[in-house]
Design goal:
- The chain has nine helices and 14 strands.
- By secondary structure, the protein is of the alpha/beta class.
- The protein has two domains: 70 residues, no CATH class; 232 residues, Spore Coat Polysaccharide Biosynthesis Protein SpsA, Chain A (Alpha-Beta Complex).
- A seven-stranded mixed beta sheet has the order 8-7-6-9-12-10-13, sandwiched between helices. The chain has a three-stranded parallel beta sheet with strand order 1-2-3, covered by helices on one side.
- α1 links the parallel β2 and β3.
- The protein is globular.
Length: 313
């Protein structure tokens, strides 16, 4: 692999079309964000001050020849971080994802399991007994994405975590993007992993999935405004100071419109927001939880949010 060492934004072309044997090395996360926004794949961007050579880079490795760069040591930040993973029948993904997260970031992990019939909860318990940074919150039944996240957020707030991340358990959100997100959360109340800003995108989606996502975001923007490009994305990082004021117990949404409601609450509270470009990859194992009940809920709840805001103001 050939590494390009980038020292300043002037060295970055307006649009990057990197080959499979190319990667970029930059000393700061800020320059990494410029690279990614201009087209570089975040899986091929290394953040380190170590000097690279053309065919070897001591700060990162490639476990899989076709896979992402992996830092020799995971990133560690000075403030406490927890990743909330809601699970329902994710036994095939859970252990591999937790292992992958640990390659990139030092953080606690909370598995919120909705009594999965495939034994996900029991696997999470077994993993937690071998690693003190893994925690498990069992819920008695499947109630939807929103209530699972609310329970996880309340658990995290009660324990004083400063950065609280939500992500899917199916590898659709890249573990190597976690350090970028935590870094941005140092100065931003809500960081949203966005598919619809420069540098973002989707991979392996069929036409139906693309249309549902595009229409869904357009529908939300029509009611709630265009300040956010990706209202429905589920890869986010909340700062404790914002999340503690959001009254999560009042959140009504149960499906993916939960993401819309939380972002809308952040805006109403005057929180600072940043959309970080990500490449969303469709799940490899398991089935998507997106169905018609979720879509109908969004069609109903988004106008309600808009109407309630108008009444209050």
């Amino acid at each position: 692999m050939h590494f390009h060492h980038i020292h300043s934004s002037e060295e970055i072309p307006a649009h990057i079309e990197a080959r499979g044997d190319e990667a970029f090395v930059t000393p700061t996360f800020e320059l990494a964000e410029v690279l990614i926004a201009r087209g570089a794949d975040s899986a091929r961007v290394a953040v380190s001050s170590l000097p690279p050579s053309d065919d070897h880079y001591p700060g990162y490795a490639r476990i899989d020849p076709d896979g992402p760069l992996v830092p020799i040591h995971p990133f560690r930040f000075p403030h406490s971080v927890v990743i909330v993973l809601p699970t329902y029948n994710e036994r095939q993904n859970l252990e591999a994802l937790i292992h992958a997260i640990g390659r990139y970031l030092v953080a606690d992990i909370l598995v919120v399991d909705d009594n999965s019939p495939d034994g996900t909860g029991q696997l999470a318990d077994a993993l937690s007994r071998t690693a003190p940074h893994i925690h498990v919150l069992h819920r008695t039944k499947k109630e939807g994405l929103g209530p699972a996240y609310v329970a996880g957020f309340q658990w995290a707030l009660a324990r004083g975590y400063e950065s609280i991340i939500e992500m899917d358990c199916d590898f659709s959100h890249a573990p190597w993007d976690l350090p970028r997100m935590v870094r941005l959360s140092a100065t931003t109340d809500l960081v949203i992993g966005s598919r619809y800003v420069p540098g973002g995108g989707t991979e392996n989606w069929n036409l139906r999935r693309r249309l549902v996502s595009k229409f869904g975001n357009a529908y939300v923007r029509a009611f709630l405004g265009s300040r956010i490009h990706d209202w429905t994305g589920g890869f986010r990082c909340f700062r404790r100071t914002l999340l503690a004021h959001m009254h999560t117990g009042d959140v009504k949404a149960k499906g993916y419109v939960f993401q819309v409601e939380m972002a809308w609450k952040a805006i109403q509270l005057g929180g600072t927001l940043h959309e970080m470009p990500i490449r969303f990859r469709d799940r490899v194992h398991g089935q998507s939880k997106l169905g018609w009940p979720t879509i109908f809920e969004a069609l109903r709840e988004v106008p309600r949010m808009c109407f309630q805001h108008r009444v209050i103001t």
